[in-house]
Amino acid sequence: MNKPIKIFSGRQTRYLAEKIAESYGQKLGEIQVTEFSDGEFTTSFEENLRGSDVFIVQSTFPPAENLLELLMLVDAAKRASARHIIAVIPYFGFARQDRKDKPRVPITAKLIANLISKAGVQRIITVDLHADQIQGFFDLPVDHLYASSIFLPYIKEMNLPNLIMASPDTGGTRRAGAYAKALNTGFVICYKQRSKANMVETMQLIGDVTGKDVILLDDIIDTGGTFTKAAQIMMDNGAASVRGFCTHPILSGPAIDRIEKSAFTEVVVTDTIPLKRTCSKIKVLTTAHLLADVIKRLQNYESISSLFKFN
Fold first, then answer.
1. pTM here?
2. CB contact at 8 A, 282 and 275
3. Mean pLDDT taken over the chain
4. Which listed residue (6, 192, 212, 229) is catalytic?
5. 8 A C-beta contact, residue 281 and residue 253
């Protein structure tokens, strides 16, 4: 017999947690956050957790208070005698700092992994990590989910006549290749060089997109510079249309304005991060049903990897 489960959420991811709980078939648990006049805050659970499997939903996008709130909730659940504590982190922030790319810098993704583990989390559920090796930063189970289970059916439903996958940089080659294999099509990539962070200096297309309906894939859109520039290069090289698919819509600075003015027909994202404002070209698909399904499978000791087999 399975132990009772309870689903809770931090403040900034409540919009998604409510949909996860509804899809799972229960009400989202209640927490209380008390803020003091100096900006300090504290968290508390408003119901009994003893002996329960507690799922805490919180993406760790900026500000850093989102991460701190997750850690505080985990600590509170541990001290309330929860049986198991599972952190559901749809967007794992600081994941781009996964290595030392120059001297005297932190490996912040590893630091965050240490903090979450030390707080008392016993399992992680996350979606499309920026770097797969981050799973190895944890000495506990990590269920790494893929937005492909949401995006691939949507792409198939569009029934585009001359489909081809594309990556805006060489780092996304594996992702584009996986989608191309699942859809039995080819793929192209862009080669870019940066002058500094968030600033693309040069970009070149590797492959032929003439007359093709291009699906441009990425895990993160930050300022949108790389993504929109890649779309324009596709059109300049004879593509019939370009659509973007991205898991985590950070969309900082001028990103939304760039997408609105871009060559994209449509940009499809998930709700791992809430949109800062609407855009006529952006469509949001929810991850709630996927995450709720994974929670059910964990409780029933069923396979999770089978969700991502598309043959």
1. 0.93
2. yes
3. 93
4. 192
5. no
Query: For residues 265 and 263, what is the distance between their CA atoms, to the nearest angstrom?
Result: 7
Q: Considering only residues 196 and 165, tell me which one the structure prediction assigns the higher pLDDT.
A: 165
Cα 250 from Cα 258, distance rounded (Å): 13
**Confidence bin at 192 (pLDDT 50/70/90):** confident
- The answer to whether the Cα torsion of 16, 22, 23, 25 is positive or negative is positive
Distance separating alpha carbons of residues 125 and 149, to the nearest angstrom: 15
pLDDT at res. 62: 93
Separation in Å, CA 37 to CA 13, 41, 72:
23, 9, 19
How many Å apart are CA 170 and CA 246, to the nearest integer?
A: 16
- Helices 65-79, 108-119: inter-axial angle, 10-degree rounding: 20
Fill in the amino acid letter for 265: T
Q: Does the active-site annotation cover 192?
A: yes
